[in-house]
Amino acid sequence: MSNVCIVGAGPAGASAALKLSYLGIPCTLIDKAVFPRDKVCGDALSGKVKLLLGRLDPAILDRFLQIPQQPVWGIRFVAPHGKLIDLPFRTDYDPHTDEPAPGFVSKRMNFDHFLIKEVKRRSNIRFLEGVEIGQMQRSAKGYIIRDKAGSLLLETPLLIVANGAHSRFSRKQAGMKKELSHHAAAVRTYYRGISGFHEHGFIELHFIDDILPGYFWIFPLPNGEANVGLGMRSDFVASKKLNLRKKMEEIIHTKAGIKERFAQAKRISNIEGYGLPLGLRGRNISGAHYMLAGDAGHLIDPLSGEGIGNAMYSGFIAADQAADCLAANDFSAEMMRAYDKRIDRVLGSEFGISRQLQKLLSRKWIAVQMANIIHGNRPLIDFMTAMYTDLSVRKKLLNPLFWLRIIAKR
User: Fold this and answer.
1) Exposed, middle or buried, 18 (CB in 10 Å: 0-12/13-18/19+)?
2) For 5-40+108-178+278-357, which CATH superfamily applies?
3) Which of 16, 190, 227, 301 lies in disulfide reach of 306, CB 3.0 to 4.6 Å?
4) What is the pLDDT of residues 171-228, one digit of tens each?
């Protein structure tokens, strides 16, 4: 009998295992892959990642800062009519100091392997690597886990399911259905030699007419490389009958302001697609003897597409809940609801606001007018910088009266 079994060793699962380890609770972590392995992703790591690693152990944060990564000091938004809005993560930032940047871009091959190396440092984490699970069967005591061949791996009173967006457990046993209006489709590839980046490594989100409410992204990486992709809500992809791979290539080769930057660039990987189950308030992501974490719990931000920081948050929260369950010897659905409530408290408001902002930006004229108002308005840009960490600022952006007051002052 294992105290806690975690299925999936991506950011959510590895974070849950590490937090349990630091709480002194042994666990078993299982993944079908052998690390290092690649994962199709945008590769952007928000400030949440640095915050959570530092909270867990400053030594882990120090080791994280040594892996290959591009420091990111802000986001460059490009409106449908081409106007640039540069929003730094902090108004007083100085990229020339020794202080780590608030955000990073690091290939998932490197970041996930970093987390696994931290897992392997911990003696109370049993890591089963390259083991594909065939069955997670409910039992009187919790769950019985068998491998693909049917051999018994373990029995556990508590299962943390963190095996990604295509989790069979999430769909079949937890009832998490794919809803096109709360799901996004994306494609990504890697390029080398793109020109015209912001000097301080800002990631770029391009809002282009016929892919709204989606966006085209360019995220700089070390060694002159970049993660390039296109994402859009799945219901819009279906209604517009878009082929995202073809659309991305069309943008790269024909869109003014973009094609010039790719003129000397070389694509260095295949174009690959993936799905993003978007966060929604009020979902049940736990039940008797189990919790869903990361993409398996549909915890991706509806606007930014951020999944890694949210996955790590959910892993940490799941570990805390596991500790409470073990202390009370209570693994009931009622006990697990505390996990749902805490996830909703930490991430739910972000999901709600992001969803509303996504609706606003789906209208070209609104996106254009917002860009015209913000462009060159230093006090407003400084104010909006706070939206990265202050939800109240994001709420104000949804209020028409806020924009009317700004216009009146011009």
Assistant:
1) buried
2) FAD/NAD(P)-binding domain (3.50.50.60)
3) 301
4) 999 999 888 989 999 999 999 999 999 999 899 999 998 898 899 999 999 999 999 9
Which of the four CATH numbers 3.30.9.10, 3.40.640.10, 3.40.50.450, 3.30.1540.20 does domain 180-276 have?
Answer: 3.30.9.10
Which residue carries 């079908």 as its tokens?
32
Say how far apart CA 114 and CA 64 lie, in whole Å.
7
3-state secondary structure the chain: CCCCEEECCCHHHHHHHHHHHHCCCCEEEEECCCCCCCCCCCCEECHHHHHHHHHHCHHHHHHHCCCCCEEECEEEEECCCCCEEEEECCCCCCCCCCCCCCEEECCHHHHHHHHHHHHHHCCCEEEEECCCEEEEEEECCEEEEEECCCCEEEEECCEEECCCCCCHHHHHHCCCCCCHHHEEEEEEEEEECCCCCCCCCCEEEECCHHHCCCEEEEEECHHHEEEEEEEEEHHHHHHHCCCHHHHHHHHHHHCCCCCCCCCCCEECCCCEEEEEEECCCCCCCEECCEEECHHHHCCECCCCCCCHHHHHHHHHHHHHHHHHHHHHCCCCHHHHHHHHHHHHHHHHHHHHHHHHHHHHHCCHHHHHHHHHHHCCCHHHHHHHHHHHCCHHHHHHHCCHHHHHHHHHHC
Which candidate, 162, 153, 128, places its Cα nearest to that of 14?
Answer: 162
Share of the chain above pLDDT 90, in %: 75
